[in-house]
């Protein structure tokens, strides 16, 4: 599976997943750029999908559908069928409630398109208030191999690295990661996230010490996750 990233607005990130001559557009706000990419590559846009239904992620849906004649797979359908295919290769759909009730992540061939479920440096804001569901969603993603690449729905890298640095000022991995960061292609690996992302470092001794010093609960994994989310 191949992936191409497109930036739109101030920090939104759209994607095209493609294999062979078939493609799917994910959160396709960058309508013109995606359309040009599809045409220049000689691809057929088979599907349009979203990671969740916040309007900044759905804004390009109708325009790209009108331009290409692709099929729109809505969130409910995606959650029910749990997958779709591009040129015979499966794209897995993983329901990840927390940020929103309808949040999903797309996985194929070591690629995770995470929308607002997981960013570089932080889990997404839990607008549902259901932190238990968010914790379970994050745990699902943590089951993937460490070389899995993370492709999020926004570029908040500098903001979230600043926050992480305030929490762990001696974490040299943050500075090392920032040296590799490019706004032209925003991604990380799960291995990176385990080094720099407080939301995934809730079992780290250093993070546990930070939480204890702030009088926050560290008794269980969920307690630690919830405590981290209260300070990031």
Helical segment count: 10
- The gross shape turns out to be globular
- Tell me what portion of residues adopts beta-strand conformation: 25-35%
Unreliable stretches (pLDDT < 50, length at least 5) are none
Class by helix and strand content?
A: alpha+beta
Sum this structure up briefly.
With 232 residues, the protein is an alpha+beta fold. It has helices spanning 31-41, 55-58, 61-68, 75-81, 131-141, 157-167, 172-180, 190-196, 205-213, 221-229, and strands at residues 2-8, 12-19, 22-26, 44-49, 71-72, 83-86, 89-95, 104-108, 111-115, 118-119, 122-123, 149-152, 188-189. Helix 1 packs parallel to helix 3.
Q: Can you offer a commentary on this structure?
A:
This protein has 232 residues and is α+β, with helices and mostly antiparallel strands. It contains 10 helices and 13 strands. The strands form 3 sheets. A 6-stranded mixed sheet has the order 6-7-8-9-12-13. The chain has a 5-stranded mixed sheet with strand order 1-2-3-4-5, with helices on one face. It is globular.
Task: Name a few traits of the molecule.
232 residues; alpha+beta; six-stranded mixed beta sheet; five-stranded mixed beta sheet; 10 helices; globular
Fold blueprint:
Blueprint: E1 2-8, E2 12-19, E3 22-26, H1 31-41, E4 44-49, H2 55-58, H3 61-68, E5 71-72, H4 75-81, E6 83-86, E7 89-95, E8 104-108, E9 111-115, E10 118-119, E11 122-123, H5 131-141, E12 149-152, H6 157-167, H7 172-180, E13 188-189, H8 190-196, H9 205-213, H10 221-229
Parallel strand pairs: 3-4, 4-5, 9-12
Antiparallel strand pairs: 1-2, 2-3, 6-7, 7-8, 8-9, 10-11, 12-13
